Every structure is written in structure tokens, then in C-alpha cells.
Amino acid sequence: xxxxxxxxxxxxxxxxxxxxxxxxxxxxxxxxxxxxxxxxxxxxxxxxxxxxxxxxxxxxxxxxxxxxxxxxxxxxxxxxxxxxxxxxxxxxxxxxxxxxxxxxxxxxxxxxxxxxxxxxxxxxxxxxxxxxxxxxxxxxxxxxxxxxxxxxxxxxxxxxxxxxxxxx
Length: 168
Description:
Layout: H1 4-15, H2 22-46, H3 52-63, E1 69-70, H4 72-79, H5 83-95, E2 99-104, E3 107-115, H6 117-138, H7 143-157
Antiparallel strand pairs: 1-3, 2-3
Helix pairs in contact: 2-6, 3-6
């Protein structure tokens, strides 16, 4: 089975016989796949009336487990955004009724951000839609190859560390 990346690599190989083009064969496909995944994510989230950044915050709270709450500092670490950005995001999610703030019982100056039932329903629905879309993207790859691909990608990403808060 051939694809457009094969053609791209062949064209470069004709023009630059002195170069090893294996990285292009790998990363051009990853880049194309990332575009398809980004589109699938946007569609899954849009169907549940949330944006990607909203999903990131809601998913961090949902993964925290019952009662689905975190401090703003912990949310910062989970989503890798600045304090000002997180404040704005929590404000917007609170205005939509997807999260609520309440005083931190252990720190009078602090607050806790908690997922509301509406927020939980939105993130659960969006996550289910995302999984369905991701399954469709992997449909032509046998299960054993999916597991092998996950292992290979883990190895490839290991030197960079795995930042928390990456959707899902």
C-alpha cells in the first residue's frame, strides 16, 4: 500500500540522493495523522458543546476521581498553562456552570475547583465521542499492531517526558 508520503520521499530521494530520508517517512505520517486526530477531537468536543481547552480542564478534574476537584495549582500542573490563563479558563467554565469554586478548607487564601454534574456529563460525553473517533482512526490496524505502535511511540516520546494534561 502506497501513500502520498511515499511519493514525497521518492521525490526528495531523486533530488537529494545524499540524504537518509527515513525520518521524513516517519514524521510526515505522524504529522498527517496528527491533523486527522485534531479534526476528530474538535468534532467530538464540538458535538458536546466544549472546546479543546475546556476538555483539558474538565478531563483533569474528572480524572482526579470523586469528588472531581483540584486546586488551581494542581490544575496548572495538569494542563501546563500559566496562572492567568487558568484563572480565565476557570472563570469561563464557571460561568457556563461546568465547574464551581469554593474555599479551600486547608488554606483560607485558596480555592478548590470542582466539576459540576453538568461538567461531568459534558466531559464524559466528549470523551466517549473522542474514543469512538480514535477507534475509527485505528480501525484498519490490527489490535496487536496497535499495541506495538503504542510501544514504539512511547519509546520515541521517552526522551521528552510525557507532559500531564494532554487531553484524554
